[in-house]
């Protein structure tokens, strides 16, 4: 009710103790098409649904390489994602120059958090309108998956999804989360695709153009899988094969009905 | 006191004159490098001795770095400058890859290096660079530089402390200069033999060259590295 009076700029609190501009920025992330991330003890897999503005248009790229051991999936304003990924790339190179070692994922994500926070406290600025899923593999501590949002919160996850209808993907991920740790790379990717499929609209399906997979892990530099290389995975998706609990493919229909309010 | 001040004639009565104290930022770490372009290959070879005057810093510090599957760079001169310049090239190549989704071609790296060197025209990188690789047609390419970025594509070149010993030999044996023998394309084996002989001979006469020889061979199958011993005296 009072939202309209206190939502004009970032430096105004509402009487309920909220910063509405941040919530509006989070809304921009929720409106973006879905991205999913999940990790095992050896790999991180990021998947994204690529939107296109029309039949004749290309599909928007959603997975970006940051360094050989770090990749991101985005949801929201792509231009803001570009700025943040250039920042991350610079920080990765600085780390290699200064300390002669690849930057740990946690440190990189802290830098994003600090940068995003500035825009939540200075008058005249606006929060970044993009959510990032950051997948990294660190030599000492293994694979990590982080979610970075416009509210400058950066949290680590075993599995997460952001963007439109992401709650449906989360439901799938929660159901099978206990299998992810020990899963091999193939099974992990198939779980990710199943989760991503949950975010599709009623009559749509995953195809070579609207889907992308990014993998990083032990002895596995960031690899982007798009186009024809998706064939193998998508074919197995149709037959519902290759994940433990493959019968789940049948009883996942409920995912649509469970689309409750996201927060 | 006799005048022994720098730049002053020797005299037998006391003099006083200002002396300029400076820090010389450059050091010559010695060593020799060469690169030869073949029909479908390129060879980049350099010794691995790093020295300062009569002192040997290390018997094994590589002077050549693989930049991509089709490009190798080798640098002689001041090792600190060479190292930083190499890192900057690698960073620029990585930005290029982020922006364009593909590896920089050898010719593009060549042009970029020239620009980077001239950007420090008034405090130069003390680096004698040779860039070797395959061009977009798959033929061998060698690009030679001076420390401020003047560059040119050639068929073969050597640089460094023994360059004046090796270059004439290469001109004669690779480019068939100053002799009546017909010019012919050399095979990889022939070029490697000439390379190894060049270095073993240079090692005999040049005190800054020796220890080990590292040879990078670039073909359409990628980059392979060989290492062989040189005399260590």
TrEMBL record, chain A:
Swiss-Prot/TrEMBL GO biological process terms: ubiquitin-dependent protein catabolic process
One Gene Ontology term, aspect cellular component: cytoplasm
Keyword Nucleus on entry: yes
Entry-linked SUPFAM superfamilies: N-terminal nucleophile aminohydrolases (Ntn hydrolases)
PROSITE patterns (alphabetical): PROTEASOME_ALPHA_1 (PS00388), PROTEASOME_ALPHA_2 (PS51475)
SMART domains: Proteasome_A_N
The UniProt record lists the keyword Cytoplasm: yes
Keywords: Cytoplasm, Nucleus, Proteasome
InterPro entries (alphabetical): Ntn_hydrolases_N (IPR029055), Proteasome_alpha (IPR050115), Proteasome_alpha-type (IPR023332), Proteasome_alpha1 (IPR035144), Proteasome_asu_N (IPR000426), Proteasome_sua/b (IPR001353)
Primary site of residence: cytoplasm
Record-stated family: Belongs to the peptidase T1A family.
Assembly mode: The 26S proteasome consists of a 20S proteasome core and two 19S regulatory subunits.
Protein name: Proteasome subunit alpha type
Protein species of origin: Modicella reniformis
Gene this protein is translated from: PSMA1
UniProtKB/TrEMBL annotation, chain B:
InterPro entries: Ntn_hydrolases_N (IPR029055), Proteasome_bsu_CS (IPR016050), Proteasome_sua/b (IPR001353), Proteasome_suB-type (IPR023333)
PROSITE patterns, A to Z: PROTEASOME_BETA_1, PROTEASOME_BETA_2
Leader peptide range in chain numbering: none
Superkingdom to which the source organism belongs: Eukaryota
Keyword Zinc-finger in annotation: no
Pfam families assigned to the protein according to its UniProt record, in alphabetical order: Proteasome
GO term, biological process aspect, one: proteolysis involved in protein catabolic process
Cross-referenced Gene3D superfamilies: Glutamine Phosphoribosylpyrophosphate, subunit 1, domain 1
GO cellular component: cytoplasm; nucleus; proteasome core complex, beta-subunit complex
Compartments it resides in: Cytoplasm; Nucleus
Coiled-coil parts of chain: none
Keyword Nucleus: yes
Keywords from the named record: Cytoplasm, Nucleus, Proteasome
Task performed by this protein: Component of the proteasome, a multicatalytic proteinase complex which is characterized by its ability to cleave peptides with Arg, Phe, Tyr, Leu, and Glu adjacent to the leaving group at neutral or slightly basic pH. The proteasome has an ATP-dependent proteolytic activity.
The family this protein is said to belong to: Belongs to the peptidase T1B family.
Self-association and partners: The 26S proteasome consists of a 20S proteasome core and two 19S regulatory subunits. The 20S proteasome core is composed of 28 subunits that are arranged in four stacked rings, resulting in a barrel-shaped structure. The two end rings are each formed by seven alpha subunits, and the two central rings are each formed by seven beta subunits. The catalytic chamber with the active sites is on the inside of the barrel.
Name the record gives this protein: Proteasome subunit beta
Organism: Modicella reniformis
Organism taxonomic ancestry: Eukaryota, Fungi, Fungi incertae sedis, Mucoromycota, Mortierellomycotina
Primary gene name: PSMB1
């Amino acid at each position: 009710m009072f939202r309209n009076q206190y939502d004009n700029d970032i430096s105004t609190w509402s009487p309920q103790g909220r910063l509405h501009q941040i919530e509006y920025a989070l809304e921009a992330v929720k409106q973006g098409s879905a991205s999913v991330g999940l990790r095992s003890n050896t790999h991180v897999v990021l998947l994204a649904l690529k939107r296109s503005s029309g039949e004749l248009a290309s599909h928007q790229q959603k997975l970006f390489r940051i360094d050989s051991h770090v990749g991101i999936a985005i949801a929201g304003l792509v231009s803001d994602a570009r700025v943040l990924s250039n920042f991350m790339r610079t920080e990765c190179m600085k780390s290699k120059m200064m300390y002669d070692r690849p930057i740990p994922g946690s440190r990189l994500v802290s830098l994003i958090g600090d940068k995003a926070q500035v825009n939540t406290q200075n008058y005249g600025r606006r929060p970044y309108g993009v959510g990032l899923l950051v997948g990294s593999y660190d030599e000492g501590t293994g694979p990590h998956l982080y979610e970075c949002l416009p509210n400058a919160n950066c949290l680590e996850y075993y599995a997460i999804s952001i963007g439109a209808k992401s709650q449906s993907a989360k439901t799938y991920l929660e159901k099978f989360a206990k299998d992810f740790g020990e899963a091999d790379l193939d099974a992990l990717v198939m779980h990710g695709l199943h989760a991503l499929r949950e975010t599709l609209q009623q009559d749509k399906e995953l195809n070579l153009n609207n889907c992308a997979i990014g993998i990083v892990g032990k002895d596995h530099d960031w690899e982007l899988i798009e186009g024809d290389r998706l064939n193998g995975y998508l074919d197995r998706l149709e037959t519902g094969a290759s994940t433990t609990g493959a019968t789940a493919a049948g009883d996942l229909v409920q995912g649509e009905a469970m689309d409750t309010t996201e927060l | 006191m006799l005048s022994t001040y720098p730049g002053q004639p020797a005299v037998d009565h006391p003099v006083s004159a200002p002396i300029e104290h400076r820090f010389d930022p450059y050091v010559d770490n010695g060593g020799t490098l060469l690169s030869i372009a073949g029909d479908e290959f390129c060879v980049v070879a350099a010794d691995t001795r790093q020295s300062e005057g009569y002192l040997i810093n290390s018997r094994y510090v590589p002077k050549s770095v693989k930049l991509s599957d089709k490009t190798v760079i080798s640098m002689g001169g001041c090792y600190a400058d060479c190292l930083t310049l190499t890192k900057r090239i690698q960073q620029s190549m990585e930005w290029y890859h982020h922006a364009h989704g593909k590896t920089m071609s050898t010719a593009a790296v060549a042009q970029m290096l020239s620009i980077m060197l001239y950007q420090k025209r008034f405090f130069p990188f003390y680096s004698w660079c040779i860039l070797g690789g395959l061009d977009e047609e798959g033929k061998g390419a060698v690009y030679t530089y001076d420390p401020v970025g003047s560059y040119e594509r050639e068929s073969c070149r050597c640089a460094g402390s023994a360059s004046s010993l090796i270059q004439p030999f290469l001109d004669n044996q690779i480019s068939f200069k100053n002799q009546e023998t017909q010019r012919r394309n050399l095979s990889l084996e022939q070029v490697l033999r000439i390379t190894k002989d060049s270095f073993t001979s240079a090692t005999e006469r040049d005190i800054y060259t020796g220890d080990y020889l590292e040879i990078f061979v670039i073909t359409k199958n990628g980059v392979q590295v060989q290492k062989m011993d040189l005399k260590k005296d």
